[in-house]
Specification:
InterPro entries: LRR_dom_sf. With about 280 residues, the protein is α/β, with parallel strands linked by helices. It contains eight helices and six strands. Strands 1-2-3-4-5-6 form a six-stranded mixed sheet, with helices on one face. It is elongated and about 85 Å long.
């Protein structure tokens, strides 16, 4: 009534295929097999071999075959392999450079735009938190005092949305700002003064990002001590209310003179100078 079925112990290859998803899906034939002419099949296989620009090292017939090939990833990370092939430099200067680069990458990541913060606090208060927390200062409309961190790294800013709090002036002087952080200074509809003095990383890319962040009321922009060039000034046409632009030397060469003349022709009320007196 019952048949005795002999149990066949799976081989190592079968168990490996079961654990790791079986054979490659590229080799599984779907649907009925089309009977092609042998010469045509041979030509197709020849074209496949010709179009394959590089044979992986582990699949070459003359290469060493490791038992760990079963655990190899299908997606090869060339950048990781390249880093692993670089010699290890344990010189103090190299270690210091690596540590500084690592800290810069972490800080750039921490300065990324957080939509939830702006949705909860509003654009003005969220921008104020971003600037003051990193050593800058801000002033709201109707206040005479600037808000900044004290000696204990504490500052007084609301932690919820307060209607009527309008950010009017922002100072980022001497801050370590990355390009990722420029998106946090956006949609400040009543902002009048913005300063990036002595922000060494601030270049043309930063200025292009800031000019497109919806600052329709900005009247004064301080770019002294930054790394901008005359090319970056071309994007200032996005700031229609700009009246005063502070740079290190607006007449340093012919390119700066032509760019400044073009800006002043576009906006007759704009004054480009090196001092705000």
């Amino acid at each position: 009534m019952f048949k005795l079925v002999r149990y066949a112990r799976p081989t190592l290859r079968c168990r490996a295929q079961c654990l790791h998803g079986g054979p490659s899906k590229d080799n599984i034939e779907i649907g009925p097999k089309v009977n092609l002419d042998p010469e045509l099949e041979k030509q197709i296989e020849s074209d496949k071999q010709r179009l394959q620009w590089r044979t992986p090292y582990s699949e070459r017939p003359d290469s060493f075959y490791s038992a760990f090939k079963l655990f190899a990833s299908e997606n090869r990370n060339s950048e990781l392999v390249e880093k692993m092939q670089q010699p290890i430099n344990l010189a103090p200067a190299a270690i210091l450079e690596w540590w500084q680069k690592r800290r810069a990458n972490i800080e750039a990541h921490m300065q990324k735009f957080i939509p939830e913060r702006h949705a909860t606090l509003g654009d003005d208060i969220a921008t104020a938190h971003f600037i003051v927390h990193r050593g800058g200062s801000v002033r709201f409309r109707g206040d005479t005092q600037w808000i900044k961190m004290d000696d204990d790294d504490q500052y007084d800013l609301p932690r919820h949305h307060v209607p009527g709090m309008v950010l009017e002036e922002v100072r980022c002087d001497g801050m370590q700002l990355f390009y990722e952080g420029m998106e946090n200074i956006q949609k400040l509809l009543r902002l009048k003064h913005l300063s990036f003095e002595n922000v060494s990383l601030f270049d043309d890319w930063y200025l292009d990002r800031i000019s497109g962040n919806t600052l329709p009321s900005l009247e004064k922009l301080n770019l002294r001590g930054t790394a901008i060039t005359h090319r970056g000034l071309n994007c200032l046409y996005r700031l229609p209310s700009l009246k005063l632009l502070l740079v290190d030397d607006p007449e340093r060469d012919i390119h700066w003179k032509l760019t400044v003349a073009m800006l002043e022709e576009w906006n007759p009320s704009l004054r480009v100078t090196s001092n705000d007196q």
